[in-house]
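Extended Data, panel c. Modelled sequence:
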Amino acid sequence: MPLWIWRSAGSIGAWLPHQILEQSQVDCPVVEPFAASGMHHALAQKWRSEMPREADEKLVRAAFQDAMAVVHTVDGIVDSLHAAMIDAATPRAGRHIVLYVRDSARRLVDRLNLVPTRPSIGSLIKHDREATTKLGRVLLTLRAAGVPVHALPVDDLATEDQTGDEAWLDLCKFMRDTSLGESNARVAWRQRLQKDLAAMDVALDADLRERARREANWAASAELAPSGLKPALRVTGSGMKLVRLDRLPPVLLEGETIRLSGVVVPEGALAADRRLLLRQGRRRQSLVWNQSSPAIAAKLPGQPAATQARFKTVGIRVLRREPVSVLYRAGEGLPPQPVADIAFEPIAREPIDGIFIAPWSIGYQPIPKVACTSIKEALFRLATGEPYSAALSEGASHVHSYFDARMRDVGSAAFRFTVVRDPIKRFLSAFSNRVLHHRELSRPYLERLKLDPPLNLSDFPFEPKLAEFVEHFEFYRRVPTIEHHFRPFSEFTAPLAAFDKVYPFEAINELVDDLQQRTGVLMSLPHSQRGGPKLQGKDLSPRVFDKLVNILAADYAMLDGLYSPTALR
């Protein structure tokens, strides 16, 4: 029975997969698919620079055709290649071990010991987040497919207590279930791990250890599995002889990029200017169609469109709020007709993009202009015991950029919360602070921006009044800081049902009380963001007010029962 071992990179436990195989006397080929040489390394490098082709995926599957034991390091592997690895592993009748280090500070110190150039702690936590997310995805995907999988925290094996004994017995049971036998090297393995851990503890100076400890407050092990999504395909086109999209991965993650390809064969006469289109959110794109499809032509003789019916692979983003539509336009000037839709539906929990506070497994999704600066600074002090400062920011210029680099899916956190605010009050606060106080729509500010594509400033309406800003809101959203602070939160916030608690802005002191009770740490909430005149809904003209209600209709629908625009008049 094949045995697959998945692990992240690191010296702690790096020897363990081979020890398991050697002690179990596995008499079969052992494959390390992404070692630093050979075809697999070249394939991995290729996939870093371009979307893979179907032929490349076949190479991955063929690499493991005869392998009975596979050691797979997920660290540093691009998402599409990692997905192909999971695809190759899932249908096979085998057992899987997922190896990881539970303790976040220990993993970061381990990585610092491995990298001679001593990169910033911030870059290490980015790589650590990617590796633990991928291991979590392995667990999620294999379990969703019903494949036997065993998650093993390596540091539990080194512990001489009940937890360590339970981990060891659990591993032994798994080994027996795989028919690989039980190893008698328990003492030797534990001593080896303990020796590695002791060496690691003294390898770094006190400053680096302290920085790793601080960063571990925002890290999580593979136990905090990402919230998976599944693709839901619906063929909608009429007047089509054949619509077939190539198979999509069964488990996806919010925000990742995947490949989309397939064949579309229209019925009837074909105009020379026909088009196949892709639509997702604000994105509109013509697909490269009319690729050779001899197999389809053989199945549909007499259909001229079948000979070149395949469209070229295109990358699409996995976004729960932005389904993908493929449309067919029969000719110039004709309206496009739907061909197929792909929605991304949660498997269990909703994805929540937020900040993870590891010591208490708390997840927070920030909403700009809803006390998020104050909450971030309070959470930093809560977890580290120190106020946020430039000296502790690891190179970040502001608390927002510090936490932006540490955002992750916190949908599996033990306690998940967010803070909401009346949408019009939030909009007016953002206008007062960003447009009037920080002057982010002034000529000097916009001239410093480097946008792609650049803004045409020759006739740009600088420093608009509130009525003009509301009237041309979609136009001003092209400025990144305006888009960030004014974006309706219904476009990016998880559904309120995904949170354990939703705090109205006016009851924010209740959040402080709840966090103190949950953590046992006294805390306060600073008023961190000031500047700009106070604007109120009653000061708006009826026309501007109605326009704002229309812009923010989805936000008010999301907050039904908490806020209503009529309360502002």
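The mean pLDDT is 83. This feature is highlighted in the accompanying rendering.
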